[in-house]
Amino acid sequence: MPTPTTFPDDFLWGGALAANQYEGAYDADGKGLSVQDVMPQGIVGPRTEAPTPDNLKLVGIDFYHRYKEDIALLAEMGFKVFRFSIAWSRIFPKGDETEPNEAGLAFYDRVLDELEKYGIEPLVTISHYETPLHLTKTYNGWADRRMIGFFERYARTLFERYGKRVKYWLTFNEINSVLHEPFMSGGINTPKEELSERDLYQAIHHELVASASATRIAHEVNPDLKVGCMILAIPFYPLTPDPRDVWAAKQAERDNYTFGDVHVRGTYPGYFLRKLRDKGIELDITEADRRTLAEHTVDFVSFSYYMSSCETATQEREASGGNLMGGVVNPTLEVSQWGWAIDPRGLRTILNDYWDRWGKPLFIVENGLGARDELVTGPDGTPTVADDYRIDYMNDHLVQVREAIADGVQVIGYTSWGCIDCVSASTAQMSKRYGFIYVDRNDDGTGTLERYRKQSFGWYRDVIASNGASLKA
């Protein structure tokens, strides 16, 4: 009997956002500063010593005050799940306090109340590129082992407060991105060009132990909780059939595999240990660390997918534009306005690859197209965006998800990135828009913050209502 090419009846359709990109209210109700508050140009510009007015993330799209309106729009699309992050510095303003900030906890209670009102499942990211700035300046972020204890206290606070209301949790957003953006991803204050590889890998180890420890705490608080890791997924293809290019592509993928291997298998893979030996790096790994990693592996694997890339050891390198994780240009693919290769089949590749490798349920928690949208007047006289390009992009990717499910891959759900327009993490712009909902805010900070449904809003509503049957192959 052939496997049906359909989505499971309990497939979780929805969208995703991050606190630092959409909440705003950066200093409201006792919130402390995070690394994002001193990154007014995202990863492309210098940091500042204190928040500056040109940092669009300080206001974001003001979800902090508009969450009821925004969640109602998500419900109108029929969302089954909403992925959001909790701002660590809202709960522990400095990060190393012993008691949490009740006003911060109460805000997320209100958000959960609203999600429950509409029957939307929450998917919560514990740390999404928003390390408290105090931890960065005082301890050099995850380079310091004491961060594990601070994170454990923070995670336990969340699980004990929300553990009966939130089933699905993610520990660190795109944890492997610390390889390339140690300040944003790991709160490491040492300038990237001065950071030693040994200190970087030690920081990674601390994060991995903290992630496993959070998984332990979650299962202690409520055995029914499901905790996943979150990986920035980029399949790397050899630029040519030359075996040296094939090996270069494998090595690039292994940089990302390492994080999933540890989260799922509970131990460092041999290829990573060899890499450390070849570099003469010896990490501080205790026996307690080894037990924690081995005994508290994740329940599922989640990932972001935006693009694929190529690698070569034999050809002249033309770097992939906009690609955080390196690689070279794939001459067979078109690219987005920000230079990201558009590769729907790469998503099927990743799904099959991760399923074959780890055998854990998979959750696609970020995918989408960043584009410069133009607000126009719709047929009914209301403002909208004619974003057929976004519809085509998402349709083609979701068709490949459907194919992967038919391949036998277990996929929990799909949350499109930036379901409401928000400030870009990489560029700190509003003009790099991903949403089904247009937010009237510009790169210079002007705008009314009014929300308008794009044409993709109705398209995604139909996809969810039909459980994917409306997709065009």
UniProtKB/TrEMBL annotation:
Record: active site: E366 (nucleophile)
Recorded GO MF terms: beta-glucosidase activity
GO cellular component, one term: cytosol
Transferase keyword on record: no
GO biological process, one term: carbohydrate catabolic process
UniProt xrefs under Pfam families: Glyco_hydro_1 (PF00232)
Name the UniProt record assigns to this protein: 6-phospho-beta-glucosidase
Organism: Actinomyces glycerinitolerans
Organism lineage: Bacteria, Bacillati, Actinomycetota, Actinomycetes, Actinomycetales
